[in-house]
Give the backbone structure.
Amino acid sequence: MTPEQRYLFDITGYLHIEGAVTGKDLKKAQEAAARCLPGGDTDERPPGLAPRSEEIPVEEFKSRPLLRYRNGFSFDKSLEAIIMNPAIWPLVKELTADMPRFVSGTLSSEQHNPDRQKVEKNPAGLHCAREGRYWYTRYQVKDGHIFCNDLVFFFYLTDVNPGDGGLIVIPGSHKSQFERPDELLIPGPDGIDPEPDPVFTNLTPKAGDFLCMSELVTHGVLRWKPTDRSRQMLILRYRPQYEGNVSMPQEIIDRLSPETQELVSTASYGHIKDIINQDPVKLSA
Amino acid sequence: MTPEQKYLFDITGYLHIEEAVTGNELKKAQEAATQYIYCHPDERPPGLKPRGNEIPVEELGKRSARYQHGFAFDKSLEAITMHPAIWPIIKELTTDMPRFVSGTLAYEWHNPDRQKVEQNPGGLHCAREGRYWNTRYQIKDGRIFCNNLVFFFYLTDVNPGDGGLIVIPGSHKSEFERPDDLLVSGPNGIDPEPDPVFTNLTPKAGDFLCISELLTHGVLQWKPTDRSRQMLILRYRPQYEGNVSLPQEIIDRLSPETQELVSTASYGHIKDIINQKPITSTT
């Protein structure tokens, strides 16, 4: 991490890494996502790669406003390579004290949903790991290093422009010592999105950008407004290698390159995985 | 402090209290400030003068200046130091042991000759730089503690695009040095290029901004050429830290309640004004 990245991540709880993946690499990833997502050839999806919660019949593909493909990162090597991309690899290592474990990589596609329900309170669905998993989630600084045990990287496959909607964050909330007031945000005229408030920031990454955040940052989502474009991204989660168990099915792990298999694996505290000494990491198979 | 004020101050390091002073009360304060700014040096009460060199009479009101002890010029300004909108915040943030340190009247006019800068546009700074071990921000038992607090009370409007105060939300808890080149100079060589890391605060007359001095802050060039930026800069610390720095001639002008607020006291002592809500000056 650069000194500026440390400073910004420490005060806001998130980082926006612009232009991380460009050119052919980005195109390949976008094309792979397109094959996997609505409109693509669903028969190509290998075992273990399924929409979250349920299998969706082919005929319903295009009508679903939000699709989340569990293990979508493993659909193609161009997507798998994103999880150790050189733009984020130093961050993943530093924030886990060189002991990372890759937990999950979901491919998400969101379309405009004209039927999204209005809400009485908490517009945009603000939440963070503090709520419900308080004692499980850490953010700490020691000897000039930041430590996080619940990290999310969003890799954007499509553009988000100002006014489109999408992710909002409350900068600085990763260190909050107080409960977020229930009425912090008020529903706006559409009954879905909150009234504008300086407390939150709507992040607008372009295709090829990463957003990195601690799960302690309070975040939510504004309604996706464009009707002609979807919001597509990989949601990549990392934890320390010595916390929790591998949750990926074996059939997914078997598809991965040896380097990714190592990243996915658990290990004891203090063990340094071989991939830690590789920068950049190249997938060997 | 309300739960929302606690939450917001804790995550951002500042609070914007809107429309705290309105109507006649605001008008009186604005008139008093104008009177001080335009007051002939020979007619100013003892101890009240601009910081630095005296301003030539013909340039009064035409030059930016910091008027020392501006809060003491008139009772309408003195009352601002314990205004009901900020009094609960001052008490809570100093664990009911506040001391009022200083109250300067700031008057800023557009300066066409403001120097361009090579680095650090906006002049970002905070108490961490130079006074690291002297400044605290801490939470205990659901209370926030600050030992270096500033309240800006605005006497004039700041509109978006005018310039004025900028802050870096969350920087009051920063564990890292601010990079020297965090902000880059914009086309005018004075203000920084827009950057989501900083927020330009735009209070209206009668609003308070409250910040911990640990919050990194700076100032954009004041752009309007037909309006000034006027505010009281009110500083508070715990009563048991430091010494009274106001001259006796200023203290003598103050109401007994303000004199008590200005005074030092030992840790644990509760001043009479702490139990008054709201504070009414007796003289």
In short: The first helix of chain A runs from residue 3 to 12.
